[in-house]
Amino acid sequence: MAVEPLSQKEIEDRLAELPGWSVEDDRLVRSYRLGSHFAAAALVVHIAGIQDELDHHSDLTLGYNTVRLSVNTHSAGGAVTAKDFSLARRVEDIAPGHGAH
Questions:
Q1: Which tens digit of pLDDT belongs to each residue from 51-76?
Q2: What phi, psi does 59 have (nearest 5°)?
Q3: Deepest of 7, 29, 46, 54, by most Cβ within 10 A of its Cβ?
Q4: Vertex 30, ends 37 and 25: CA angle to 5°?
Q5: What is the pLDDT of residues 11-46, one digit of tens each?
Q6: Interacting residues of 43 by C-beta distance below 8 A, sequence separation 6+
Q7: DSSP 8-state class, residue 1
Q8: For the whole prediction, is pTM greater than 0.70?
Q9: Gyration radius of the chain's alpha carbons
Q10: Alpha helix (H) ranges present in the chain?
Q11: Which residues, in sequence order, are bridge partners of residue 73?
């Protein structure tokens, strides 16, 4: 089943429900600042598990105490889709403090 790109209005409506998330260069993105490098690395491991479960993977960048996600749907021509927002919601649910920016 093909995944369709979301309209600009659909993206805006979904972003309103996910504070801290934005769209940059046709990718859904979010950064999290954590209390330590270990906490940031642990979050990356948890996100990797969610991505495997959903079979939808983002680019993850681990910094000293930060984690940055960047995702779009390759099968939809690199557009933002509902799959990206499903991943974002799942990450928000496990992020410490729901991801203080």
A1: 999 999 999 999 999 999 999 999 99
A2: -80, 130
A3: 29
A4: 130
A5: 999 999 999 999 999 999 999 999 999 999 999 999
A6: 32, 34, 67, 94, 95, 96
A7: -
A8: yes
A9: 13
A10: 8-16, 37-54, 82-94
A11: 79
